[in-house]
Prior knowledge:
The chain has helices spanning 2-9, 11-45, 50-62, 65-72, 76-79, 82-107, 111-119, 124-154, 167-176, 179-207. By secondary structure, the protein is an all-alpha fold. It is elongated.
Amino acid sequence: MNVVRFMLQNRTQVLELTWEHLWLVGWSTFFAALVGIPLGILIAHRTRLNKPVLASANIIQTIPSLALFGFLLPVPWLGERVDRLAILALTLYALLPIIRNTYDGIRGVDPAVVEAGRGMGLTESQLLFKVELPLAVSVILSGVRVAAVICVGLATIAAAIGAGGLGEFIFRGLAMVDNRVILAGAIPAAIMALLADFGVGWIEKRLKPR
């Protein structure tokens, strides 16, 4: 109840930081999908690029988040605006599940269906947009769902470089050794992650081929 009282007393700041958090997560997930889906399609059709692209995405995942923020801080254009830096870092972390699921989704399409499309005279681009992507869309969205949840969690670290978000409460609470303040950041972040998982999961089920 102390946490609820604290959140109600500071509701303006809670809403402001929640909006900042949502803004970071939304843009980073969007950019990750914008880059990751085409990359996944590319390596599904050009298998020689599979290992280097997935290896690069895996290496990014191994870099600690605070270290990555630190590496990017000296970059001139990014360092001027910490929100840009945070969005780039979160985008890089979100790439792996999107690339991998897009690759798996495209490669998982029945070759007989693809050959039937070719037999009907479809071009490669028509096969992609009319056959492969519609059949792979649920798998691709599953990757986007994982990426969104990853971004929600990692966006709390962005507060360490002054990018805002619910991590402000968490870091402040740790400094004050006050569980109320920590939970005021952790609870909305957890709810946001659950909503992202449920929302994208619902879209995934709606678009799943029958």
